[in-house]
Records
---
Amino acid sequence: MTLGLRFAIRSDVGLLREGNEDAAYAGPRLLAVADGMGGHAAGEVASRVAIQTVATLDAEPDPPDALAALRDALEGAQREIRERVAGDESLAGMGTTLTALLWTGGGLGLLHVGDSRAYLLRDGELRQITHDHTFVQELVDAGQLTEDEASVHPQRALLTRALDGRSVAEPDLAIREVRLGDRYLLCTDGLSGVVRAETLRESLLIADAGAAADRLVALALRGGGPDNITVVVCDVVQDGEPPAGPTVVGAAAGADGPPATGPATAEHTLTGGSGEQTSSGEVRAARPRSRPVLVALAVTLGLLAIAAGGWFWLRSQYFVGVHGDHVTIFRGVAWSIGGLHMHSVAEQLALDPADLPQFERERLEDGIIAPNLPQARQVAARLVTERCVAPAPTTAPPPTIPSPAPATSTPCPAPQP
């Protein structure tokens, strides 16, 4: 009996993001998802590079070593990201997760870096087959947090591994046995961070892969759609018909296709514009207004536009400072006008500024400015590193021969959007 793959793939910008930094690929032999980070265009560049690089494996013959082929593709993506950052300073700080499954005929090669996920539904039971590379997951592994506590932890977005072109991202690699009837789900945290595992399982029990994928995206949107949502649902089937052609979605398709739009965008297009919508859905043209009213309206709209522009600019600024006894990421600017603070708390770290060197405490008092939230998280992660590297306790040295104790260090996390 010959087995093959049948898949459905979806990507949605969500309800709060302006663009889609997720990217995904599904083909006869390869499934992959990537979640970009870095803000502005950088995140989508990183995820697109990762997907385009690993997608070349789909067109090649079965490699003698699937895991070596996946690792080579990962290293190629890292080189490409590094070269792009070197050639364009505006891309500094970008990175991406990458989770991929490569069909080998007798099994699936799994590659995983970051916190996008792969699940296996077998005999009605759903199991996560990847392990999140996050700071919070390390706390769970160490028994310091429960899964429920981790889901609301303020530092749950900090990655310990990612493709960023700077550090070497060591992937998790494995060969998985396949069985007829297996169903795999690959997704970004825009789904797994919003929808509980039991609800994922119930949705994946829908027989049609496309309907299951649509249901998963709808559930993430119903949960607030705070992030981009990308899913690949794939079934292991008896291979009796030509495989489906390759499909690319999200940022990987954005360079050559229209921007991704979600249901909220479609609804806005349907009901937007000048005019009035009746209860039956018919749109009537707006009635003309007198000239004085139009002038007053134009002035009012101009003032509102200026105010809105200032508000949006303020909301796009970030800095790292101190709130109480915690190092904190603030949204806004470190100003106060007439007792009104021009900032609010975005994220709070479990880090006491008293544990930092004096020069870092002084910088925090003024506020360490960051151009966006991912960059602010990088600053915070560096400060965590400063706290983590500390000299071991020393005893009083002999009067004549000082002998300081060696320093010890522990690994510290890197940030994600």
---
Amino acid sequence: MDKQLIFSGSSNPQLAQSVADNLGLKLGDVDLGTFSDGEISIEINENVRGKDAYIIQSTNSPAEKNLMELILMSDALKRASAKSITAVMPYFGYARQDRRVRSARVPISARVIAEMLEGVGVSRVITLDIHSEQIQGFFSFPVDNIYTSNIMSRKISDFYKVEELQVVSPDTGGVLRARSVAKTLGVQDLAIIDKRREKANVSEIFNLIGDVEDKVCIVPDDLIDTAGTLGNASHALKEKGAKEVIAFITHPVLSGNAIENINNSSIDKLIVSNSIDIGDKLKKCPKIDVFDVAPILSEAINRLKTGDSISELFK
């Protein structure tokens, strides 16, 4: 561990401190500030030569600030001769634009972020439930994507019998994730919500495939933004006879009227991770519980040191 250094950006210092504590390390000494014109300033205040540096920084809102901190800190570490730089990005922002749908004139933002990280010397990325797995192919170095949904949902079996549960994919794109969670819980069947999305952050429930009557519905997903989709899904499930609706969602983006939408929805419980610090939003929504991912990230970093398998974490 004497060759490992943990640094934190400003997006989630509490999570970074927990990871460092679990590893028995102190957070690296870095000054994060701004110049008078608002530009970000970074200075590393300790020797990093020949050491493995880890930067814990989610790129959630304000995404531009958090991303630029990560970029500039990586460059500072590279120029200070760090042996390796691992970007630990619990939430990987700008991941929702990962392709040009029907040749629309839009950027492939996830690819741009990958090239930026590579350009400043990052040699590995650790993330949780990345929005789409093909993003890993945008990088020329390893990306460890930890499937947190499986880990978060395991404890549900302590409170319910398997035959009571039904895993529900919130859309057709989430079927693989839902099937993996179902396998973890020992649930045989799967339900799918087929929704039609007219534009970003607006969704309409179109059809429910599968039986949910008298079932405790487990809804896994990678992120929750305005909570419109989840609200519509929970209403549809209750209308079809679901007994309870419990969502396990890794990244609580929670923008706009998300908290109001959750409070007004038919969802009974929303379990999110602390990949994003939701601050006072937790107090405004009694339906939300937070799952601590610090032990998972700590173990992933430890396994990089020991050479053990990271994929075993979520199998």
---
Amino acid sequence: MEGKTEKLVIIGSGPAGLTAAIYGCRADLEPLVYMGTKYGGQLMLTSEVENFPGFPDPVLGPDLINKMKSQAERLGARLVQDDVVRVDFKKYPFEVYTPSGVTKALSVIIATGANPRRLNLPSEMRLMGKGVSNCAVCDGFFFRGKKVAVVGGGDTAMEEATFLTKFASSVQVIHRRDELRASAALKKEATENPKISFVWDSAVTDVLGEGKVQGVKVRNLKTGAESTLQVDGLFVAIGYDPATEVFRGQVELDQKGYVALKNGTESSVPGVFVAGDVHDFRYRQAITAAADGCKALLDAEKFVKQKLEVTVPS
């Protein structure tokens, strides 16, 4: 691919990147997608997905991604399982570097997503999608009438805990400190909810269970005392890290490290567009990421049209 100037390069292969690729093929932009060596985003660690339109029965997260991938390939997208290691958006055409070489592009869509922070426990990853989750909106329904725990003390944790009370019989919030970091309104809502209780000054040291979560081990950070909580689910809500390190210094990032939007889906660099969780720290849903991918592509199509000064079929 080195030496050819692409009309469109898409970086990322979750719902945002693959939707952009599908639309990009229909817009005759011949998209080149750098998927990354670990492709598919967070859906690859998700078990059953019940809230993605078009699937009357639950679909496994990896299966949903593979269906999107197959659709993009059928339409003509070129999917390359390479990591982007560097970009140069100060040149035009833009330059995108992978271990295979450099690709020049008239437009780029950044769709690299965000990664949930982990507890870094082997049992956490072993039971991911089997009772361990990073998304109450996605998975809360599966815990109707069950006991769950939430790790964290910030706004996200309180939002998750409060949401889970719609389904769970009880929610225990495990926090490393003796005071919440959440905003006053979210703190008040959570502390006044009769279904929510708090385990202060504590950290999860292990997730118990084989095929599913059956409990968590907790250690008090002040006394060292250990205890076991009998829960059916564990929601880790200690924040997200946007996958933007490779773009630092190339596009404007906000205070949290997410790509800042300037005009619709456009970044601070004209011709570089953004889709999905790499900018969206509020919704973080597969369907909103897919919608972002569509919008970013439509904006990129207009940009490329102007650059080529030809009419691209819609």
---
Amino acid sequence: MTFNHKFILRTLSAVLGIEGIAMILSLGTAVYDGDKEASIGFAISTGILLILAIVARSVSSGFSIKMKARESYFVVLVCWIAMIVGGTLPYLLIGRGYGVIDSIFESVASWTTSSAWVIDVNTMPRALVLWKATSNWLGGMGVIILTILVFSALGVNAQRLAGAELRGAEIEKHTARMADTVKILYLLYIGVSAVELVLLLAGGVPKFEALVNTMSTMSTAGLIDYHSAIAKHFTPFVKVVLVIFSVMASLNFVFYLKIAKRKIGEAFKDIELRVFLGIIAGATIFSTVVLLIYGRYTSLFEAIVNSITGVVSFACTTGFPLEHVETWPSVLRLLMVILMLIGGCAYSTSGGIKVVRFTVFVKMIGRGIYKRIHPRAVKPIMLGDAPVSALNASSISTYILLFLGLYVVSAMVLALENLDMETTLSAPVALLTNCGVGFGKVSNASYGVFSALGKLYCAFLMLMGRLEMYALLILFSRSFWLPDRTR
């Protein structure tokens, strides 16, 4: 098939330009800290990205915004790869001796908002830590969503591109133009982030650590415990703030749009919101009871606090590296895997299969049982007050089966690393859901135990999970490359 090359280049120019501008903050930090090597590395990286953006923009003059539906996935994939490659440059150029594979892994983990890592954050200069957090924050809302914000000429293609990237079944416009919807979303994202930053500062967290952890928490990318600063200030208040904002970031952003439009009653009636909060509440109660029964904690308060922190870490796919979860009873570790698989809400910064898909899938099972008893009955699948179309139900079933199939294949691939079974079986789930934290040797989200090829495959899984598989898998489809010859 033919591609609209000029349109792709113009979109790339916006993506690279955004990344280059975002890197200036880290460059300024390196200069302020007097870190000469980091300053040079970030200056070169920023220069390369901005020059490439200018070149791509100049050669794409006279572009047409016409784009076929199947091209949207390709554009999203190209832009994400470009952003990841650009994000790798600082790791390679700041003179700390980081390897290419490790640098790629870190860039992918940052942009896909996974807490997975292979380079110890304590070996990084502050400028690079800030870049990691900035990548988290921007990646949380998505590369294409950010592009739509600054590239208003996308027109009708904005909704196609957003639908190919956003973490949900289907994207809807809530204003006359998709670009206006994105602007509102970003204002909400910035506003909520600002509130969390103020609360962390009020809780005694140092300014730099408060900033980077606000970015990583709002993007559900975990904690950045730089030189144990968070551990030193991890008071109950700070823990509550991090937990609350992880949950807030995992809610459907349409919920906040409705709140902004003063449709409060309609916002809280959302079935996905209720199911998600119900899952967190139920899992927390169950975990607390089990921990008390097994004598893991003697204090009820301590059991509740650790239960809700662990549940939120996995249910929101934030991936707090909580070492105590590794020592929990097996039933709770299995529960954490299930929570990680379900994930957060659609159109949020969290990963996983998504609560709305899980809800519909459970209802489909229930309808299947009912139809066996009453074969002639007409029983639609209801999501709140609205019936789910057969097309959407089929799409959800296909997605879940595809997710599970990819998990099985990935577990087999990672089994070639010859690690223990707990690591082998939990790592693919942690990566595909962008949680990062697994069990066994990856309980602290460190994937340094894998070989170079293993790390690359892990990076591939993180990108697959962030793009919900299709943007990558369609490249292996004959109908994508030869649409005119396929029936």
